[in-house]
Amino acid sequence: MSDWRSISLWLDQLEEPLTPRAPLTAEVDADVAIIGAGYTGLWTAYYLKTQAPQLRIVVVEAEIAGFGASGRNGGWLMGNLLNDERMLHRLPAGQRAASSALLHDIPDEVGRVLERQGIACDYRKGGVLYCAARYPEQRLRLQAQLVALRELGQSEADYRWLEADELARQLRVQDAEGALFSPHCATIQPARLVRGLAACVERLGVTLYEQSRVLDWQPGQLRTAGGSVRCDWLVPAVEGYAARMPALSPHQLPVQSLLIATEPLTPGIWNEIGLARGQAFSEASRQVTYGQRTSDDRLVFGARGGYRFGGRLRENFQLNSDEVALRRRLMLDLFPILKAAEITHTWGGNLGMARRFQPHMLCDRQQRIALSGGYGGEGVGASNLGGRTLADLILGRDTLLTRQPWVLPQAAIDQLPRWEPEPLRWLGYNAIINSFVHEDRVLAQRHSATWRRRLAMGMAGFMEGLMR
Ligand SMILES: Cc1cc2nc3c(=O)[nH]c(=O)nc-3n(C[C@H](O)[C@H](O)[C@H](O)COP(=O)(O)OP(=O)(O)OC[C@H]3O[C@@H](n4cnc5c(N)ncnc54)[C@H](O)[C@@H]3O)c2cc1C
């Protein structure tokens, strides 16, 4: 692979030439060796190096920094973790408040580093709008979610309901019935963030090797075709690519997410749509749709993709016509005004899904391996928290970061929950996703019978329950 710009709109927009850094061609020694130059690997390097500048840190990347999900995502930088409510629920109220505050602070922490290090990545903290649109059940779903959030102690300042007229001041969506708004989210240009971070850690003294695929690794060492690293600590930071690593693959499923982007839209169209402050938006369907307005005035819109039998990674992200048509249809249902807008870019990527759909940050002190992942499509912010947490774990510090319910401060990788063997994984995952697609289709038909709507929702809800 060398046509890096074709990977995503974001890489295509970069001004820099994308010349790969030198590969690993020797035997080197390091204190910490990191596999993968995505956000997780680079944030870990950043927080380690800024707190312990004497450490020799190397990052070994198969392609170029930002090749993976970090150069392809939807650019939502969220102040939460996937399914954090389940983990927070188990905590006493005081501790829960501290954990929530830690999560809500993620976009601000990233903003502070960007400012300090001069990384320009179109960061705008406009919050996120979870819209109730397309069918009335979305409003009920979001309001039930709001009740659950309140029970967790989330205040009006964290999540608040916007009626349709209030929403319309920020975003005009067809048939909107309101939205759940949270200020704890920023939008970014993903490739600018990951490439900016790579340059930043290099300036701090971290060595990056690109086009250096790690062929095998074990505690204390890794090997590529051209060289090897002997290290004290090893950090595999490969998220969706864990499927290719026998030690990690039972614990992390590679799932796709796919996006489309319009051409730059006119000021007139944006006056109709809104999103003037860099808000992220989605609607409350189980298809997991998400979008943002880019700094050059495109609309980027994505939805969840599939899983391949045996955890086979998808390499070719030239979307087929059905994949594009589904996303375009979902986008036009929300924004009919975009009917004539040209779709200029389509792309996708692999993300990592942990068995209980909860991220983990783990430290195996005996083997001296640390890892963070299983973000399940919500890793832009989570990887920053992961990098900070791994740095503290590796430095042997007992901090607020290391005392969270998603952290396993002393555990081996094989203690992570395992996915069922094939064909159960494939059958199970696809049955769940198909029930979501079916539900969405039935609910979006305004005149479908009440019993059909209830049945579709019941089935999808049951399947969602199985995921936990
Ligand atoms: C299409 C899409 C949209 C998304 N949208 C959002 C969003 O809007 N908000 C959000 O929070 N999250 C989103 N996510 C998830 C988020 O992008 C990821 O969770 C996050 O980028 C993970 O970062 P990472 O560094 O852990 O992994 P990656 O960015 O995938 O980096 C892993 C790196 O490891 C390298 N690698 C793999 N194997 C090897 C090897 N053997 N040797 C050396 N290097 C190797 C890869 O080349 C890659 O560069 C999205 C993901 C996708 C795919």
Question: Could you name the key traits of this structure?
Answer:
single chain, 468 residues, alpha/beta, FAD/NAD(P)-binding domain, D-Amino Acid Oxidase, Chain A, domain 2, 8-stranded mixed beta sheet, 6-stranded mixed beta sheet, 34% helix, binds flavin-adenine dinucleotide
Poorly predicted runs of 5 or more residues:
none
Give the number of DSSP strands: 19
Whole-number tally of structural domains? 3
Task: Tell me the overall shape.
Answer: globular
Classified by CATH, the class of the largest domain is Alpha Beta
CATH topology group of the largest domain: FAD/NAD(P)-binding domain
> Number of helix segments?
13
What structural class should be given to the helix and strand makeup? alpha/beta
Strand content: 15-25%
Report on the biggest sheet: 8 strands, mixed
Which molecules are bound besides the chains? Answer: flavin-adenine dinucleotide
Helix fraction bin:
25-40%
Radius of gyration: 21 Å
Mean pLDDT: 95
CATH architecture of the largest domain: 3-Layer(bba) Sandwich
Between the first and last Cα atoms, what is the distance in angstroms? 37 Å
Question: What's the CATH H-level superfamily name of the largest domain?
Answer: FAD/NAD(P)-binding domain
Strand adjacency order, main sheet: 5-6-4-13-14-15-12-16
